[in-house]
Each structure stands twice: as C-alpha cells, then as structure tokens.
Recover the amino acids of this structure.
C-alpha cells in the first residue's frame, strides 16, 4: 500500500468520529453514486442468489417462494453432464491461463528491450489492435478464416501439403482455436501493465549490471523479470479469481452442434437453463456453485502467494 | 558496408560516449537481432488477419476464395459496400450503439471517477470498510440469474436504462482510478488547498480532474470499448429488434445467419452472384463495424501505460 502514514495536519484523528465524518461530507457525496451502484447491482443480486435454495416462482418473488434446501445443488451434481461441464470449464480456463498469461509478459519483456522508439511504437500499435475488435467480429473472423474450403488458414495448410481441417466443427480443435485466438487478441493489450511496471525499474540497476559486464539477456533475466514479479503475482491472483468465469461471451458464440460436447461450459449452461428455459432456481444454483469455487480459488491463490512471495492482494 | 567503416564508426561512438557506457557484446547484437525478428513476426501475425479482411472487402470474392495470400486488392469489387450502406438494420444498430456508448460512458465516468477520488482520500472515514465492500464484488458475484431478476424487477428490460445502468460501475476501473489518484496527487497540494479554504468538491473539480487527463482518457476508452463491443447484455435485456446494438445485429448477420444473405441479395437473379456477394458482405460488415475504434485508439495510445498504474491495486 502506498503510504499508510498519515500526513500531519491533514487527518484530525484526535477529533471524535462523527465530527471527522461531518468534516468530509463532500467526500461521501462524491462516493455515493458508486456505493449505490454496488449495492443495487452487486449486493442485491447476492441477496437474490438465495433463490438457489428456493423454488423460485416469478409471481411469489424472491422472499415469498418456498424453500427447497439443497435440492438444486444435488440436481446439478447428479447431472449426467456435470462432469463434462466442469471439465470443459476447467480445461478452457487452465489452457487459457497457461498460454494467455505468459504471452503478455514475454511480449512486454521483449518490447522493453527494443531501443528504437519507432519500432517499439509500431509493434505496440499493431498488437493492441485486436483488443478493439469485438467478440462477435472475432468469432466471425474465425469462422471465415477457418472454413475448410476457402479459409486462408486451411489454404496455407494445404499449400504445405496438409489436409484441410474443420476447425470449428471438430471438438478436438475447439480449445486450440479458443485459446489461440484469445492470445492473438489479448497479448498486446495485456502487455501494457507489464510495460508500465518495466518503466518503473530503477535505471541505476542497469548501469551497475553493465559495468559488471552483464549481457542484455542476463539483464532481462536478473533485473527486468524480478522487478516486475510483484505485478506478475498480482495479475496471477486476479486471473485465478476469474478462472471459472471463462469468457462465456466468446464460448457461446463459438458453440455449434458439432463442438457442443467440449464447448458447453458452466456459464453458457447457466444462461441456457436459466434465461432460455426459464429454470431460474436451478440455474442460480449452478451459478452459485461457479462463484463459490472462484472465490475459494482466489482466496487460496492469495494465501499461497502471501506465504511464498510476500506479494498479495490483501 | 566494408569492415573498416564499421570499426571506425564503433571507435567514434566509443570516444563520444560517457565512460559508463560499456562496449556492446556480440551476444547482445544477436539478442537484438532475434528480438527484433520475433517481434516483427508477431506484428505480422497480428496484423495480417485484419489486413486480409480489409483487402477482401474490396476484392472480387472469386479471388479471395482462391486462397492466394492477399497482399493488395487485385480485382476490385465493391458491390458489398453498396449493399451495406443501403442496409437499414445495420445502421440502426450503429445508431443505437452510439447512443448506448455515449450515454453509458458518460454515466460510467460520473459514477466511477468521483467515487475513486473519494476513496483515494486518506481522511475518508470508513475508507477501509468501503474499499473492502468494493473489492469483494470483484471476486464474488450473485450470478447471472439473480442479477437478471433484480434488474428486470427494477424495470430494466427493453429500454435504454437496461443497456446503461446495470454496468454503470466497473469496480476494476474504479480501483485503477483510485490508485492513479493516490499515487499522482501529492498530499501537499491538498494540504495547501485546505489551508486556503478550498472545499473537497472544488479540489476535485479544479485540481484532481485537470491533473488526471491520462487516467480519464484510459477509463473513457475502457468503458467506451466495452459498450461498443458488448453483445451479451443486449441479448439478455433486449428483445425489440429496433433497439439492438450493432453487435447483436452483427451476431445475427454473421454468426447465426438468421437474416442470411437472402434479404440483402434478393435483387440478384444469378445464384453465383448471390453467393459471391454474400461472401463479400461479411468482410465489408466487419470493416464498417470495427473501423471507428481501430482508427481512434492510436491517438489515445500515449495514455495507455500512464493510465494503468494498477501495480498496487490492493486496498
């Protein structure tokens, strides 16, 4: 945390609480819209999540609906495709993390070594671009490029003597396409935060290393990397928090009847069961299952990181 | 270049430079070479698909489908664009998206920035607790269905508010903004302002905001891109077609193929022409819908690194 020390003269900490509160009433006014927002749009739904334990009927409302206990959770766990839902979700997120997490770090470390300002800016500008493409456009580009008959990726494969692949139709290719397009879209943008961290590295460290005869590569390994490690750890914990919140917008768009055995993940299932089939309570239970696992993951990642690296979110 | 000139230029460089500067090692030259080459390849891999779409949108679909690598338009064919410019629902979607984006981003900023500023102040009594309340929502949510039930019970369905209010605050952006304020606004400034009798409102509007242009640029961009590119929210809360944002129109056109090309190509008699046009329409639609953001962001690029000082978003 930045400066927990209180500035002298700023904080009248000897005054009684209500006086201090009244003193800064304008700050409360400034914060009020944001506080209302999280109460209405974050905490109210958390309260609404109790319908997972109820038989929610629209006409009876959240409070009026009868309790159902753990019925819907049991129903979910006993579902024939429970295992595959969980497996699909975990696999997609773990592969995304495995490839998508290191990519921006590598890109940032490499960009940071580029001395020519123009070239650096050129590569940055280009790699940021896909971030501004919408998911809908990305997925339609995928389906155009990956068509077996005319997509240019398949043409390249065929030019090298390979067989055209039905990328969007074969289940075994779904995750590869999902993860690779995710790296394509997100690596450049994700590098920004590491570039910002690299910008803060103390230049005297480099000078000392150069006097000692360290090569560029050695400097990268022994100075750059350790210096951004705290940022990496923080980003990793944050990523853990959304491990099961796989980009359902993209997965949903990429789904088709052929790849559904691997592309159906918990969040797309929640949407279909809840909003399309109108099975609110069951779907809320599935969603809560997801949220709780996420929460446990981020807590444990934070705990482990605090023990091992002394970096933590809280 | 002869070897001699190279060595002399090296000598010159050595003489001119300060003594701290150590001679570049040959391994460093290799490193630079490989580094530049890999980055170049990365740039090509990232850029080519986008460039391909642009070229294909003005090239005869017959050429595109041949599968030759397109480097520049060879046979012009722009019927696709003519059709696109005459396609009403696309432009209606465009207009809707613009409205949602402009209004939504304005509300986003009005909620996020003052809140972030207030929470960056150490004399905000109860800050720790309030921050915890905010941070908790980053890691735990009630879920899609409860949110849907609450929001629709508040009347947010099939109207403008449904598109704007539920996402009015991104806690992530608030945390970025808060870190920015607390690490860039010197405390002495606030002290001095307080001694001069400056109120918190006045300080926020007259000092904090003008000093945070990079932050405002980045947060505005985050929100605006989110509004422009999102479709899922609209999919859930809207079912009137004339309210659909661009992305939902695109989804129906490009992915679900609901409209198929039939309505847009009905005036063509020849089946081959129809297929040709339908192919090209896709590229053209992608270009028309993505170009605005792709043109704007390079102008904001210089703010990107400054604005994301999230290094310590912990509270």
């Amino acid at each position: 945390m930045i400066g927990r020390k209180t500035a002298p003269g700023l904080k009248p900490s000897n005054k009684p609480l209500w006086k201090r509160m009244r003193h800064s009433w304008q700050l409360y006014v400034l914060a009020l819209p944001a506080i209302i927002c999280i109460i209405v749009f974050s905490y109210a739904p958390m309260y609404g999540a109790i319908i997972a334990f109820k038989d929610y009927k629209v006409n009876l409302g959240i409070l009026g609906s009868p309790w159902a206990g753990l019925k819907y959770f049991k129903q979910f766990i006993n579902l024939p495709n429970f295992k595959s839902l969980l497996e699909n979700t975990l696999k997609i997120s773990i592969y995304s993390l495995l490839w998508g997490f290191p990519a921006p770090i590598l890109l940032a470390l490499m960009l940071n070594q580029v001395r020519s300002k123009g070239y650096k800016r050129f590569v940055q500008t280009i790699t940021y671009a896909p971030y501004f493409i919408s998911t809908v456009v990305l997925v339609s580009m995928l389906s155009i490029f990956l068509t077996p008959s005319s997509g240019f990726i398949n043409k390249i494969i065929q030019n090298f003597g390979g067989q055209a692949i039905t990328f969007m139709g074969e289940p075994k290719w779904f995750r590869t396409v999902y993860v690779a397009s995710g790296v394509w879209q997100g690596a450049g943008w994700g590098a920004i935060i590491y570039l910002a961290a690299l910008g803060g590295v103390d230049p005297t460290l480099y000078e000392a290393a150069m006097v000692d005869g360290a090569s560029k590569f050695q400097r990268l390994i022994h100075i750059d990397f350790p210096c951004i490690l705290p940022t990496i750890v923080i980003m990793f914990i944050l990523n853990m928090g959304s491990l099961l919140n796989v980009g359902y917008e993209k997965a949903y768009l990429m789904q088709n009847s052929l790849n559904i055995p691997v592309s159906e993940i918990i969040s797309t299932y929640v949407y279909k069961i809840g909003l399309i089939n109108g099975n609110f309570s069951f779907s809320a239970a599935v969603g809560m299952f997801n949220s709780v696992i996420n929460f446990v993951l981020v807590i444990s990642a934070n705990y482990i990181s605090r023990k091992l690296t002394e970096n933590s979110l809280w | 270049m002869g070897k001699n000139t190279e060595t002399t230029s090296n000598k010159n460089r050595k003489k001119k430079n300060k003594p701290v500067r150590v001679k570049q090692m040959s391994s460093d030259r290799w490193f630079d070479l490989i580094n530049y080459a890999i980055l170049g390849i990365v740039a090509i891999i990232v850029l080519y698909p986008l460039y391909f779409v642009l070229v294909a949108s003005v090239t005869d679909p017959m050429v595109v489908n041949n599968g030759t690598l397109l480097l520049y338009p060879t046979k012009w064919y722009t019927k696709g664009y003519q059709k696109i410019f005459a396609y009403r629902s696309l432009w209606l979607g465009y207009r809707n998206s613009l409205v949602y984006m402009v209004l939504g981003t304005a509300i986003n900023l009005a909620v996020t920035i003052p809140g972030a500023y207030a929470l960056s102040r150490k004399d905000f009594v109860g800050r720790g607790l309030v921050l915890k309340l905010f941070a908790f929502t980053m890691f735990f949510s009630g879920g899609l269905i409860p949110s849907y039930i609450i929001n629709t019970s508040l009347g947010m369905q099939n109207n403008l508010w449904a598109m704007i209010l539920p996402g009015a605050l991104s806690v992530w952006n608030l945390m970025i903004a808060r870190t920015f304020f607390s690490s860039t606004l010197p405390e002495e400034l606030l002290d001095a302002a307080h001694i001069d009798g400056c109120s918190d409102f006045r300080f926020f509007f007259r000092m904090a905001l003008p000093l945070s242009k990079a932050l405002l640029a980045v947060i505005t961009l985050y929100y605006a891109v989110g509004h422009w590119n999102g479709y899922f929210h609209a999919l859930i809360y809207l079912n009137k077609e004339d309210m659909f944002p661009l992305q939902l129109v695109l989804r129906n056109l490009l992915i679900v193929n609901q409209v198929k090309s039939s309505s847009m190509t009905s005036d063509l008699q020849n089946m081959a022409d129809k297929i040709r046009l339908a192919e090209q329409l896709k590229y053209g639609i992608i270009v028309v819908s993505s170009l605005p953001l792709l043109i704007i962001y390079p102008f904001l690029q210089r703010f990107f690194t400054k604005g994301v000082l999230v290094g310590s978003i912990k509270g």
